[in-house]
Amino acid sequence: MQANPPLLHGVEDVMAGPGAPEKTLTLDAALGHASALLGRDPAMALGQAREILRVVPGHPQAMLIEGQALRLLGDLAAARAVLARLAADQPRSALTLFELALVHGQMGEPRQAVVALERALGLKPDFLPAWHALAGALRETGREADARIADAKAVEAATRDPVLVKAAIAMHQQNFQTVEAMLEERIRMLPRDAAALRLYGEVAWRQGQLDQAIARLKRTLEVAPGFGAARELLVRIMQMGPDVADALVHASILLEDEPDSVGHALLKASLQVRLGEQEAAGTIYRGLVARGVDQPRVWLNLGHVEKTLGNQADAIAAYRRSIALDPALGEGWWSLANLKTVKLTGEDIAAMLAAQEGIEDDEQASQLHFALGKAYEDAGEAEKSFEHYARGNALRRKGIEYDPERISGDAREHAEIFTAPFLSSREGQGCQADDPIFIVGLPRAGSTLVEQILSSHSKIEGTMELPDLMMIADRLHSRVEDGEFASYGDVVRSLDAAALTRLGEEYLERTRVHRKEGKRRFIDKMPNNWMHVGLIRLILPRATIIDARRHPMGCCFSGWKQFFARGQLFTYDLTEIGRYYRDYVGQMAAFDREAPGAVHRVIYERMVADTEAEVRSLLDHVGVPFEEECLAFWRNRRAVRTASSEQVRQPIFTDGVDHWKQFEPWLAPLRDALGSVETAYPQVPEELA
Fold first, then answer.
1. Which range is the signal sequence, renumbered to this chain (predicted)?
2. Neighbouring residues of 36: CB distance < 8 A, sequence distance ≥ 6
3. May I ask the CATH architecture of the domain 14-159?
4. Residues 469-506 pLDDT 10s
């Protein structure tokens, strides 16, 4: 045997062998030919390697090819013998150790595979396939923590690869077709390259292909469960859709892997909040501040949770701490003002006025103006209050896209679609479950009060404003945008009995994650669902629909002076919110005509004036017996996430009914937009009835 000749180095011997062409080959060419045969004909590669070894006994490259060919042919014991002998002879050959490890793995010897791979990586730390193999071998031996470290090392090795660097640059330049072709070739060659797989998922996400991105990232995590960056991207994509519960599972794994990561803790807590797990989220936030994480946003998020849970003193303290750390944090000031039962002081006003100059972000500046509006309102300075509300609304309106014409058109289309003959033609179809109770209307119309009353009943669970019905409706609308149908009416009319049942069952399945108490009935308080009452009637014909309605001037002004965290884009202009209210009244009136009795209307002022009678009527419509606790709803300690969270934790009071009148001198645009809807209230004007 030759004494340790360099691996992959040939000598100029002349030879021929099985499968060689008629002409003679140099040793280098023969080795290259044998190596090339491995992928398509390992038996021929084995013959070529052995012919080389006959001419040059002990040649390291030929022995390596012999061992590889034997492994591919399934003769693992012979492969192990050849490769073990070569590894002893060539102790600094990382490739030989890697091949030996593959044989050990296939023979069910993961511990020996780990030893060989660790030796290989000690020689060649950027050996990507070896890191992948080591992660798998470690998992087989039960060393999950070490396997996750190997996953991370594999990713680290891959990120230095020039092919992936070039692909990442192409992605950031939005050359998506180019980068996908590069990554597909890379993954074909290295199917366990987690870094390439993650990048492949990110490319899909950047192109708006969320389902494909999720599938690719899940594949990445099958290959490398310890790849935290891939899991984090997966969580952030999944939380955009309906899979929030699944996203929480992955966020929990992230935090288990890195328990000291503040970012992962915040990500998990945010998902728990979305799923209604307020106390669990609070535990995370309280744990962070106990660890000394003294960040404004952490305190702000803690304040949101404490508010939702009804811990007002703790919420105030948290909000106060957030603005002490960052006086220009408009969201902190607004959150404090938005407790409704808290009055900001003259010192607070001075601090906010001083902070105005340092705020460059329009959203933060907008929230600061809303807080100043509330502070001046509490101080009885209506003109200054209105001025700041107007400035806050103007900033907020500037940053959003809202088309009032589309809302008006959709309301008219709804009236044209959901006629009595059409609804009658679908009688008996749809999912027959009566679980959901939908509370619809406008925000600030008393819907939270109605929800609190109903959720105080022993048979009804309150959840939150659920987006699921709107997502189903948006999916139907997208079929028009994609050109499949000419109009939304055509989409709705195309739904057969099976499709209607399937959509109803989908809604129940999607919302199941929010039902924590095991009660048969539950509340969906998304106010915007008034736009979809016809769809509700089709897919869930036995569901209860309650329309919470308040005087248009009071309701719209209250909505206009409320900064909403998301949605409710119509509320930032007095004319637009008045028009929206009018469209809502018109559509609901049309539905009342075509489906009499399908909707139970709760007039806020009547609920305030004669609570017991209205509560009894409400419960009767829902189909549950009267319970005294529904009258003592303020004792219900359930989590409440809306702007009225503090108000519904005290008995009904009448002060807010006509509160808007002190601002009447500046509300002409709202009054003009409402027109006869205001003067006819609580009745519907003749032209809409």
1. none
2. none
3. Alpha Horseshoe (1.25)
4. 999 999 999 999 999 999 999 999 999 999 999 999 99
